[in-house]
Specification:
This protein is of the alpha+beta class. It has helices at 24-27, 43-48, 97-105, 123-130, 221-231, 251-266, and strands spanning 5-6, 40-41, 52-59, 62-68, 77-82, 85-89, 111-113, 134-137, 151-154, 158-162, 165-169, 178-182, 191-193, 199-200, 207-208, 210-212, 217-218, 238-240, 246-247.
C-alpha cells in the first residue's frame, strides 16, 4: 500500500495498492497530463532522492517555502507569522524532518489554508506533521484527492482566521479560488497573497487572471471585473504570487490597472490586430 504523488502536479492521493491510471487533477483542462505519459512517485521516494525545502525570509513575518530541485508545478508556499498565530498559505508536496525542524524554529504552524486545488499537494502530510487544520473553500471540495479529518471546509465570501489574517473567495481560476489578506504585513502597509488566483506576470508591475494557465484559457471580462472589485476594498501595498514573484509597491493600483487592461483586451478595445 502506498500514497501516490503525481509527478506532474504534485498531488498526493489516498492509500492504495497500485497507482491510478490518470491523475484527476492533471486530466482536467486547467492542468495537463504529461505528453510522455502519467508518472507517479511517493513521499518516501522523494525523501530518498535528496529533495530539500528552501525556507527564505522574504520580509519580517513572511518566509517562502520552495522545494529544490523543482518538483511538480513548482509553486512556493508561504509561512506567515502573525502575533500568536502562524499560517502556511498554500502547500507543497515535499516535507521531511529537516523542514519540520526549520518551520518549528520560526514559530511552528497553527493552520494551513489553500488558494485552490493545484496546491493541495501533500497538505495532509503537512497537517499531520504539525497537528493543525487545513482550510479549503467548500466550492472546491471535489478536488480533494486525499481526505482527512484535518480538513475544514469553509463557505461564503470570507473566512477571518485572526484579526490580521482573512481569506477571501474570489473565484476565477477555480470556483473556490481564494486570496489571503494580511493588513498588518509589510510594516502595516498590507500584504495580499494570491497563489495564482491573481498572477504576477513577467513585468512585475502587472498581474493577470486566467481560467487555465498552461492551456491559455482566459476568464470572462465580467469575472475579472468582479474579482478586481472585491480586492479593491482591501488595504495592501504588496502582493505575492505562488511562483516567487511579487508586486513590491502599489500592488493595489497594479491589480486595478491590470484588470482594466485585461478587460479592454478581452473586449477588443485595447489593440487592433
Amino acid at each position: 500500500m502506498k500514497r501516490p504523488i503525481c509527478i506532474t502536479c504534485g498531488t498526493q492521493y489516498e492509500l492504495m495498492e497500485k497507482n491510478p491510471d490518470t491523475c484527476l487533477i492533471c486530466k482536467e483542462e486547467r492542468q495537463y497530463v504529461n505528453p510522455e505519459g502519467q508518472e507517479w512517485t511517493t513521499l518516501e521516494e522523494m525523501q530518498a532522492a535528496q529533495f530539500q525545502n528552501q525556507i527564505i525570509e522574504e520580509e519580517k513575518g513572511l518566509h517562502s517555502v520552495t522545494t529544490a530541485p523543482t518538483f511538480g508545478i513548482g509553486q512556493t508556499a508561504y509561512h506567515i507569522q502573525s502575533k500568536d498565530f502562524n499560517l502556511l498559505w498554500d502547500c507543497i508536496s515535499y516535507i521531511d524532518s529537516d523542514t519540520i525542524q526549520k518551520i518549528n524554529d520560526i514559530g511552528g504552524l497553527d493552520a494551513i489554508a489553500l488558494s485552490h486545488p493545484h496546491y493541495y499537494s501533500a497538505q495532509v502530510e503537512w497537517a499531520e506533521a504539525f497537528n493543525v487544520p487545513i482550510y479549503i473553500h467548500e466550492d472546491d471540495s471535489e478536488w480533494v484527492m486525499r481526505e482527512s479529518e484535518m480538513i475544514r471546509f469553509w463557505s461564503g465570501e470570507e473566512l477571518k482566521l485572526t484579526s490580521n489574517l482573512t481569506i477571501y473567495r474570489l473565484g476565477g481560476h477555480f470556483q473556490g479560488g481564494a486570496v489571503l489578506h494580511v493588513p498588518e504585513g509589510n510594516e502595516g502597509r498590507g500584504l495580499l497573497l494570491t497563489g495564482d488566483i491573481i498572477q504576477v506576470v513577467a513585468d512585475q508591475e502587472w498581474v493577470s487572471f486566467m481560467y487555465s494557465y498552461p492551456n491559455l484559457i482566459p476568464l470572462p471580462a465580467s469575472k475579472v471585473e468582479e474579482m478586481a472589485r472585491k480586492v479593491n476594498l482591501l488595504k495592501y501595498d504588496r502582493l505575492y504570487n505562488a511562483f516567487h514573484r511579487s508586486v513590491k509597491f502599489n500592488a493595489d493600483q497594479s491589480v486595478q490597472l491590470s484588470a482594466t487592461r485585461y478587460i479592454k483586451a478581452i473586449e477588443g478595445k485595447l489593440f487592433h490586430t
